[in-house]
Amino acid sequence: MLNRYRVEKPYRGFESLPLRVVWTKRDERSILSSLLLFPLPPSPIPLPSNLTPPSTLYPLPLSTPRLRFAPSPTGYLHVGGARTALFNWLYARKYGGQFLLRIEDTDKARSTDESERAIFEGLRWLGLDWDDEVVHQGANLERHQRDVERLLAANAAYRCFCTPDDLEQRRKEAEARKESFKYDRRCDRLTADDVQRRVRAGDPFAVRFRVPDGETRWDDLVHGDIGFPNKDIEDFVVLRSDGTPIYNLAVVSDDIAMRITLVMRGDDHISNTPKQILLYRALGAALPQFAHVPMIHGLDGKKLSKRHGATAVGDYRHQGILPSAMVNFLALLGWSPGGDREVMTLDEMVQLFSTDGLQKKAAVFDPKKLEWMNGQHLSRTPAIALEPVVTPLMLEAGISSPDELARRRDWYLSLVDLLKVRARTVGDIVRQAAPYFAGDIAYEDQAVRQHWKDVTAALEILRATRERLSTIDAWTPDAMESALRELAERRGVAAGKIFQPLRVAITGMSVSPGIFEVLVAMGRDLALRRLDDAIAWLSMGGSDKNA
Predict the structure, then answer these.
(1) Tens digit of pLDDT for each residue in 91-126?
(2) Quick check: pTM over 0.85?
(3) What is the C-alpha to C-alpha distance for residues 4 and 500, in angstroms, rounded to an integer?
(4) Active-site choice (25, 108, 178, 306)
(5) Is 301 left (phi over 0), alpha (psi -120 to 50) or beta?
(6) What is the distance between the alpha carbons of residues 360 and 150, in angstroms, rounded to a whole number?
(7) Domain spanning 306-377, CATH class
(8) Of 46-50, 264-268, 385-389, 445-449, where does mean pLDDT reach its minimum?
(9) Residue 62: predicted pLDDT
(10) In CATH, which of 3.40.50.620, 3.10.310.10, 1.10.10.10, 1.25.40.10 is domain 30-77+100-259+269-288?
(11) Mode of pairing for the β-strands spanning 66-69 and 98-103
C-alpha cells in the first residue's frame, strides 16, 4: 500500500529514475479504502490537498528520447516483439536517447520466470542492451491505484456496479436486436448517495473512465494523422473490482512515470491509443509521440504464428542463425534504409535508421530470405568470430575433440573460412567440415547417381586419379591441378569428368569449395585414404555409406 514515510522514497521498480513523491501521515488510509469511500462529485473539483497534482507527480518529458520495450513474460521472445524492441533500440541509439525495458507481469497466472529469462537472453543475443534497471509493472500497483483515485477525484471516472452477468445479458440482448453492444453509462447516472450506499454495503465495483465528447487525434510517425470519434469509444474499465488495473491504465501510468517520449509498437495497438491519450490528458501529463509499425505476416499473408514455423527468436539461434543476420533481417521487416541496401551491421543500422523509413504495409517473414541473409553474414564474419558458435556443434556432432581443435587451431580456423562461403547456417559449416576430419563419411545419394552412375567408369577414373595424386611431390593447388588436367587430357575427357568423381570420393558431396582447396585443406594422407575408401565402396557394389 502507500509508502508512509515522511522522507523521500522512490517508486518501487523505478529506483534509477529521479522521480520522487513525499507521503505523510495524512495518507494512512489505504488506496483501496480511498477508492471505496471517496465520494463521487457531481462535477469536476480540485484535487484534495493530500494528493499530489498530476503536473507535479508527472514532469514534462525530457528532451532526451526515452523509449521502452514492454513484453509480457508469458512466453518466449517472439519475432514480432524482437522487431519492435529493435526499432526502439535503433531510434534511442541513433538520437542519443535511452532504451528502457519494462516487464508487464501483471498477469501473475501466466507470467513465469523462465519466460522472463528467455526475453533477457533473446535481447542480449541480438545485441540489444538496455539502460537503467528493468522495471516490473507488477511492482507499481500502488501507483496505478493512486492514478485511478485521481481520475475519480477529477470526475474523469466513476464506479460501475454492473456485474459480469449483467453485462453479458445486455450484450446478448443487443445481439438479438442486431446491434453492437456499448456500455450505456447507467452507473454514471447514479446519485452520490446511491454510490455511497452501495459502497458501504460492500457491493463490488469496477472503475470506468468517462470518455468525453469530441474526437481523439494524433500525428503518428508511421501512419500520419489518425483520429477516432470519441462516440465510438465506450466508457472503458480502468480498474477491476479486485483492485487490479486494466492494461491501458497500467501502461499509461508506467509510461508517464518512466518519462517515455516515444511509444513505438505494433499497429495492432492503434485501437488502444485513443484510450491512452485520453488517460494522459485526464492525468495532466504531456503526451509522448506514437509510432505504430506494421504487423509481420507469413508467406500466406496471414499474421505470423506457430503454423508458419518457428516464431521464437531462440529457435533461430538453435537453427544456426547468427545474431547479426537475425537483427539485420528483423530490421528490414517494416523498415527500409533507402536504395537497395540490405546487408548491414548493427552499427550501420544505427547510422541509417530513421522513422521516415518505417513502412505502413505489413511485412512478410520469408524463411528463405533469412537463410540467405545468414549466408551473407557468415561469409562476412571472420573465422575467429565464428569459432565460439561452430565449435560446440562440431563437438556435439562428434566430428572432432577439444584437444584436436586446440592443437590444430590455425588449420581449423582456415577450414572455417573456406567453408563459410557456401553455408547458409552454422550447421552447414559443421556438415561440410566432417570430411576433413578422420571419421568415415557417407555419400550423398544424388551425388552418387549423378557422378558415379557408371560404376565401372567411375572406378577407372578414381583409380587413375589416386595413382596420379600419390606421385605428386608437392601437395599444392598448382601441382595437383596440372597433374589432374594432364590426366584428363590423356584420357580424352573434360577435366570436370575427373574433378567431380573425385569431389564425391573425398567429401561425399557434389558441391564443395574448389577441389584443389579441398585437397590442400584435407591433406595428402586423408585425401588418399578417402579415395581408397571410395574405390573399395564402389568395388563392393556400394552399400552402408549412403547419406
Answers:
(1) 999 999 999 999 999 888 889 999 999 999 999 999
(2) no
(3) 82
(4) 306
(5) left
(6) 37
(7) mainly alpha
(8) 46-50
(9) 52
(10) 3.40.50.620
(11) parallel
CB of 304 within 8 A of CB of 311? Answer: yes
DSSP string, 343-390: ---HHHHHHH--GGGB-SSPEE--HHHHHHHHHHHHHHS-HHHHHHHH
Which cell numbers hold the place of 274? Answer: 485513443
Residue range 39-45: average pLDDT?
A: 36
CA gyration radius for the chain?
33
Tell me which residue of 331, 359, 357, 363 sits closest to 345, measured CA to CA: 331
Cβ contact 522:509 at 8 Å: no
Q: What is the DSSP code string of 99-114?
A: EEEEE----TTT--HH
Upper half-sphere CA count for residue 164 (Cβ side, 13 Å): 2
Per DSSP, the three-state class of 321 is coil
Look over the chain and give the mean of its residue pLDDT values, rounded to a whole number: 88
| DSSP one-letter string for 8-22 | -EEPTT-TTS--EE-
Q: Please give the helix or strand (H or E) that residue 160 lies within, else none.
A: strand 157-160
Annotate 140-153 with b (16+ C-beta within 10 A) or e (fewer). Answer: bbebbbbbbbbbbb
Strands laid side by side in the 66-69 sheet = 66-69, 98-103, 135-136
User: What is the reported pLDDT for 45?
Assistant: 35
Could you tell me the pLDDT band of residue 56, with boundaries at 50, 70 and 90?
A: very low
Is there a catalytic annotation at residue 306? Answer: yes
d(CA 488, CA 504): 17
Average confidence (pLDDT) over 131-137: 96
CA angle, 386 then 392 then 395, to 5°: 125
Domain ranges of the chain: 30-77+100-259+269-288, 306-377, 381-436, 445-539
Q: What is the pLDDT of residue 311?
A: 82
By the 10 Å C-beta count (0-12 exposed, 13-18 middle, 19+ buried), 177 is classed as exposed
* Region 445-539: CATH code: 1.10.10.350
State yes or no: pLDDT of 39 exceeds 70: no
Closest listed residue to residue 182, CA positions, set 235, 254, 116, 126: 235
173-177, 279-283, 388-392: segment of lowest average pLDDT = 173-177
User: What are the grid coordinates assigned to 138, written together?
Assistant: 507488477
Strand partners, 20: 10
Q: Is the pLDDT of residue 58 over 60?
A: no
Q: What percent of the chain has pLDDT over 70?
A: 87
Does the pLDDT at position 9 exceed 70? no
Q: Which residue has cell 522512490? A: 10
Amino acid at 492: G
